[in-house]
Amino acid sequence: MNHQGGKQWGKLKESQKKELDDINQSYHSGGKFDDVEDLADKLISYRDQFMEFDEDNSGDIDLMELKRMMEKLGQAKTHLELKKMIAEVDTNNSGTIHYPEFLDMMLGKRSTILKIILMFEAMNKEKEQPKGVAPKKSFADLP
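Below the sequence we write its predicted structure tokens.
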């Protein structure tokens, strides 16, 4: 794993983002997922999710990255459960989740454990409560 920082890391991330955007473009214009609502927005969201979990910028999520991802989400899994999650998505038997496999999972009709967890987490993020001190109210604010 390349532990570069600063500008090198930024260049690496930008390069990965461009590669994933190219894949997103093929999904957007491919016609296979035309029935998916807000496809462009979802592709951007999935790209960002994938980049967050692909810690070594290898282009795929391996067992250890999936393990850390599940721990971050508060969904720690056993080694066997993680292998099963990868096997559900891994269509080329590489033992990892490539970005197109990730997109097929997230956009497809089939439910996988990983898809359910990620969708549940996305719904929870949308409902986050405001933080900080509550604004003062007066009687005029009452209905």
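The longest strand covers residues 60-61.
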